[in-house]
Amino acid sequence: SDLTQPASVSGSPGQSITISCSGSSHDVTAYNFVSWYQQYPGKAPKLIIYDVSRRPSGVSNRFSGSKSGNTASLTISGLQGEDEADYYCSAYRSSGTLLVFGGGTKVTVL
Amino acid sequence: QVQLQESGPGLVKPSETLSLTCLVSGASVNTDDNYWAWIRQPPGKGLEWIAYIHYSGSPNYNPSLKSRITTSIDTTRNEFSLNLTAVTPADTAIYYCARGKITAASRGWFDPWGQGTLVTVSS
Predict the structure, then answer these.
(1) Residue B108 is nearest to which of A1, A92, A103, comparing CB atoms?
(2) Would you put residue B65 in left (φ > 0), alpha (ψ -120 to 50) or beta?
(3) CA within 20 to 30 Å of A5's CA: A102, B78, B79, B120, which one?
């Protein structure tokens, strides 16, 4: 994948976890156009963070996003069982492949 | 609220053309700040952006698929379509349509998504 994510992250209920998303000077570093999606098995992805740190209406404030250099991060605080899902980052590029995704991270709630 | 629904055959033979349509409700496909997208996901794998479509301009395609893609948008039916030619088993995937936004201050995200449709390429 064009963006690098850990394959899996786990945590206990109530804990905070962070998922990293590493890109390049062409995408994550260059623009504040990183988004994150949550996907349950058999379901379509759902937007949970856009423009690095903005939350769509209705998304829990337990989800937060940030960026430093070529790495974006999604933090889930107060981990709950319902947070067990796959999470994908994506980033915009100005040319070529305009939109790239990470390989996805499976979050497990212990 | 905005809803999208994909439709098309679930089985396509190798070397043939995959054709999908996405019906949009709750929004107009000919709104300036709405871009429409196709994204796919092979079973058990990650997401791949295929195309951005806008009613008034040239579409943008993933370079890896560009030679095999055509898209169209029908403002009267409020839907948009994807054709992928010369398919192989590697094109087997869940195909999603989605609404995107591209403005000076915000871009590169998709919301909402259709439920997705599984297309299998097999003889």
Answers:
(1) A92
(2) alpha
(3) B120
